Amino acid sequence: MTRIRAAITGIQGWVPPYILTNKELESMVDTSDEWIMSRTGIKERHILKGEGLGTSDMGAEAVKALCEKTGTRPEEIGLLICATVTPDMVFPATANIICDKAGIKNAFSYDLNAACSGLIYALVTASKFIETGSIKKAIVVGADKMSSIVDYTNRETCVLFGDGAGAILLEPTEDEVGIMDSIMQSDGSGRVHLHMKAGGSLKPSSYETIDAGEHFVYQEGQPVFKFAVTKMADAAAEIMARNNLKSEDVAYLVPHQANLRIIDATARRMGVGTDRVMINIERYGNTTGGTIPLCLWEWENKLKKGDNVILAAFGGGFTWGSVWVKWAY
Ligand code: ACO
Fold first, then answer.
1. Ligand 1: distance of its center to the CA of 122 in Å?
2. Is the pLDDT of residue 294 over 90?
3. Mean pLDDT of the chain
4. Is the minimum distance from the CB of 84 to ligand 1 under 6 angstroms?
5. Is 256 a catalytic residue?
6. pLDDT-based confidence at 2, cuts 50/70/90?
7. Ligand 1 in contact with 182 (CB < 6 A)?
8. 286 given a catalytic annotation
9. Structural domain that includes position 57
10. Same domain, 141 and 207
């Protein structure tokens, strides 16, 4: 029996037009372009401005453009998963709202929260529905309005994040392409280093939580950095080893864009030169769910059918993982 795999058959990104530069951040907090560039590799990030606009608006723009460019009618989509940590509301799911805004009427849809690894988790989850034959066309969205949970008086976090979205179309194939293998892991004890303190069931929103600034990203940079360097590189190296992929077999590493130094460490461990690493952190910062599809979107024209592409991510949870994709077009 021929094995059905889930192939990526289209990719689209969307970022809001407003650009927040390091220069502008210098006027907001005690920081410098030199510090931000040397510690993170970020020069600027896009920010979603405007009343009444949320993560779903960015996701819906990416989905609409994806359907248009791939000639997909919205009613053909059977599943949409949105990876996000900044849902429009606690409920309903942002995925439900994206479907409504993009005219997707025949899909079941839900959100998936795995922080910066969310896109990888969602991609692998959706691929299983395609592999079993229960869904013919699925869309995976990675979207975050990080500016809604960033404290712009805290220099340790406000320089890192940006807003953006990407959408990936998955369809079944009998060819030797698509999602080939994946490694995904989590360790909830890492939550002490990276979380949002209030607004959940543990500590519902109150005047006190707002006054204490507990609705913003709380991050202890150094422990997160140490785990990220090790775990992201481990996952990428392991997926290569267990599939007998040598560094020369890898066309591209697509790393989550949190910090240029974490990306470099992963590439070194895989033996992949920077010419084969998708890096756009300089222009977007860390868009959480958006980073990997925004990279694939920008490199789409360089990718060829059969290229081995390794996705790798690390994020809050802690969560981490790696996916081997054979490019399908
Ligand atoms: N501008 C100037 N100085 C700063 C800034 C800033 N923006 N931010 C911090 N500093 C200062 C600190 O106060 C500290 O000063 P001190 O020595 O006087 O105390 C000094 O710079 C060094 O601070 P560190 O925190 O040690 O800097 P580090 O080199 O670790 O870089 C960073 C910080 C960029 C946050 C890094 O730790 C990092 O990238 N961590 C991992 C982030 C990540 O991968 N997150 C996971 C994904 S996020 C998610 O899942 C939602």
1. 28
2. yes
3. 97
4. no
5. yes
6. confident
7. no
8. yes
9. 5-178
10. no
